[in-house]
Amino acid sequence: MILALQIILVLAAVIMTVFVLLHKGKGGGLSSLFGGGVQSNLSGSTVVEKNLNRYTVLTALIWLVCIVALNLLQAYGN
Description:
InterPro entries: SecG. With 78 residues, the protein is an all-alpha fold. 65% of the residues lie in helices and 0% in strands.
């Protein structure tokens, strides 16, 4: 159980790093390479950017749950 949580934690950290790097910054960011640069003048952000935000938050929640679970297993496990 602990090994599985550790693996998920590392994968979530790597995926979250990639998602954060894909976000659009002041200069356009890496998300413009994958279609994030095509914007409508009427909307503030594209569907790609909104989905990227959702995936980033979901990955961060998974990362946080793994940290809490590992801490609880270490404190009260065995």
